Amino acid sequence: MFIVIHSLVTSVSLTALESQNATMHFVTEFVLLGFPGQREMQNFFFSLILVVYLLTLLGNGVIVYVVKWDKRLHTPMYILLGNFAFLEIWYISSTVPNMLVTILSETKTISFTGCFLQFYFFFSLGTTECFFLSVMAYDRYLAICRPLHYPSIMTGKLCVILVCVCWVSGFLCYPIPIVLISQLPFCGPNIIDHFVCDPGPLFALACIPAPSTELICYTFNSVIIFGPFLSILGSYTLVLRAVLRIPSRAGQTKAFSTCGSHLMVVSLFYGTLMVMYVSPTSGNPAGMQKIVTLVYSAVTPLLNPLIYSLRNKDMKDALKKLLGLRSNPN
């Protein structure tokens, strides 16, 4: 089906181009404008984003190391958390290094191939994050709603399978949309008013309208975003119902605390994601789109390790033990 659609889109594109009876120069690179401003402002953005990047690598790297180092954390919940932190390292690395280079560069160019490679890895890693958040919500549902059956259901084997499914399926979702977009004719201009290669600006640079390809990409984005989101919503609806049935206030507080960190991450990540790729953004200024993209691509990976480590007693104890800060019981 997608091959047929792709053939139709390509044939229509070629026909439209030939009808113009003009010689066109097809672009081999794009210009990422990034953040506007004088050199002083550019240096400020560079320093700020570099600090955010280094802190994100440090925070998530510490979580990965602690989960691997402390045997008490070798449970499904923390194995998922460790993989999620590892994912965040690669997620932010798919855009920020090139963003930093673009800020310092005079030409601010990225090759055609490099643009679509960044597009692929950025969206594939983002899709993988959606799947991980869904699996983590399912893990919390089992732990709270079915505590007696949790050890027999969420076994080490099932946890490994779920982790592998998240990684593999995340990287299998976007090849078709990316191939379709890359086959569109880009004959100039080649200036993208953004700091990443995003489908919206790329569609705007295509020489001809591509409604079929846009529909396919919009459908992919909607399914990938809403599928895991509805799964998360369902899991936490059942969790909330179970927690409200706990007679003691202390029991309710403890149950909510185990889910609070995850809900904060879900709200931050999905809130910005839906604003960018589900709600209509064509009328939004480019500056607003850059801010929203910066939040979910750089700020969220920075906040996640802080949210999980500061709100999780086991993680805080493991960090204290690692740093030799555990208090002497005597």
UniProtKB/TrEMBL annotation:
SUPFAM superfamilies xref list: Family A G protein-coupled receptor-like
GO cellular component: plasma membrane
Domain of life per record: Eukaryota
Annotated Gene3D superfamilies: Rhodopsin 7-helix transmembrane proteins
PROSITE patterns the record matches: G_PROTEIN_RECEP_F1_1, G_PROTEIN_RECEP_F1_2
Key words, A-Z: Cell membrane, Disulfide bond, G-protein coupled receptor, Glycoprotein, Membrane, Olfaction, Receptor, Sensory transduction, Transducer, Transmembrane, Transmembrane helix
GO molecular function, one term: olfactory receptor activity
InterPro entries on file: GPCR_Rhodpsn, GPCR_Rhodpsn_7TM, Olfact_rcpt, Olfactory_GPCR1
TM region(s), chain numbering: 43-66, 78-96, 116-138, 158-180, 223-244, 256-279, 291-310
Ligase listed as a keyword: no
Family: Belongs to the G-protein coupled receptor 1 family.
Free-text function comment from the UniProt entry: Putative odorant or sperm cell receptor.
PANTHER family xref list: G-PROTEIN COUPLED RECEPTOR (PTHR24242), OLFACTORY RECEPTOR 11H6 (PTHR24242:SF90)
Protein name listed in UniProt: Olfactory receptor
